[in-house]
Amino acid sequence: MTMAPAGIEQRRKLTTEIPGPRSKELHDRRIHAVSAGLTVGLPVYIDRAEGAILVDVDGNQLIDLGAGIAVTSVGHAVPEVTDAIARQAARFTHTCFMVTPYEGYVEVCEALNRLTPGDHDKRSALFNSGAEAVENAVKIARLATGRQAIVVVDHAYHGRTNLTMALTAKNMPYKDRFGPFAPEVYRVATSYPFHDELSGAEAARRAIAEIETSVGAHNVAAVLIEPIQGEGGFIVPAKGFLPALSAWCTASGAQFIADEIQTGFCRTGAWFACDDEGVVPDMVTTAKGIAAGMPLAGVTGRTEVMNAVHEGGLGGTYGGNPVAAAAALAAIEVMRRDDLAARASWIGTVARRRLDALAVESPFIGEVRGRGAMIAVEFVEPGTKAPNAAAVKAVIAACAAEGVVVISCGTLGNVVRLLPNLAIAETLLDDGLAVIESAVRALDQTL
Length: 447
Ligand code: PLZ
Hints:
There is one protein chain. The protein is an alpha/beta fold. The chain is about 40% helix and about 15% strand. It has helices at about 20-35, 65-70, 80-90, 105-115, 130-145, 160-165, 195, 200-215, 240-250, 305, 320-335, 340-360, 390-400, 425-440, 445; strands spanning about 45-50, 55, 60-65, 120-125, 150-155, 185-190, 220-225, 255-260, 285, 295-300, 365-370, 375-380, 405, 405-410, 415-420. The strands form three sheets. It has a seven-stranded mixed sheet with strand order 4-10-9-8-7-5-6, sandwiched between helices. Strands 1-2-3-13 form a four-stranded mixed sheet. Strands 11-12-15-14 form a four-stranded antiparallel sheet, with helices on one face. Strand 7, helix 9 (about 240-250) and strand 8 form a beta-alpha-beta unit. Helix 13 (about 390-400) crosses helix 14. The longest helix has 22 residues, at about 340-360. About 55% of the residues are buried. The chain binds ligand PLZ. Ligand PLZ binds near residues 131, 134 and 230.
């Protein structure tokens, strides 16, 4: 069985203003049906998508430079993935792996054990969402070490469930008035070279001193960190920071947990961001890009840690759902076959060349950074390093009006991030970058 390809031309095309009349109608229905607690990003309602093009209900074709927050890394409606989903959906959609298991779950775990950093013996467990994976990594680390303290860093984002809210740094909108939060979570300074101007070794010394003073090494079950911080602002730590923290964990008997939920699966030019400095985490959490949009997440760790858990200690009704597992296996095969890690690096080179030139020209750009196809532009008040969230809003709105979907991040809302799918056509990437350039050049007039 092969699904007919949607055949959407990989080209930006606007037929109405953005949002168009049908989108406006749907938005009105949404307001009367959906909780106001959910963010309204760009209120353009999507009808179908292919590659890097979103087609809205008014027939506009938008360039997707967000990939649903680093999820559809192989592209939208990739036939290998949609076929795998359709085939598996026709065979069976659910049994519950804990009741009667199936091969797809085992095969995804095999792939995670093989692809995550390090060639030691590993085991994995599958869940539904990134937050659920992080929760389980913490459960396992606590059980395996017999310790309770979890160390996280400034600007961290790990999810919105109760435990992961505690792990996440930013109050608004994630935590405000949703407490009380889980105990035994300790936050230390991160490495943010643009602002702290510290080397990786210096930033690690500062973080480790804070841990040893305020927590005590022997109390630490795990240090949990995103190897490149995502929601917090695409913060790339200075070289040496992650290796030093990882070495400290090994020496202290704590688990070093890399949250690769946003950075994983080829996004940064390697299978995982930790590969860049040869860091081998004790545990890795994955989600997002693993399954091309189907909900799936994983925890992978050393066998002795993952197997320290008593039988029945881990689970959930849907975790490792067979349809999501089939999508993951197909997506992983596309990444391998098409070497999407190399393509991510190429995207980074192309985008950085143009954005670096733009930064020279625009006083609103403080820094362009990132790795591979995880690219960020931090906006500042001209002549300072003070955050400029208004510039970010203006750039994103100008891009949206021209049919280019880009999203923001940063604890202070001061970063534009690009997360295109890794197979995006060169013409679309160029067109998208040209729209961003015009939006930034227009800031002088709008701000
Ligand atoms: N860890 C590193 O990036 C999800 C959040 C969107 P879930 N990031 C997008 C929003 O505003 O809710 C994320 C992440 C890292 C964990 C998570 C959580 O993953 O699948 O959203 O639960």
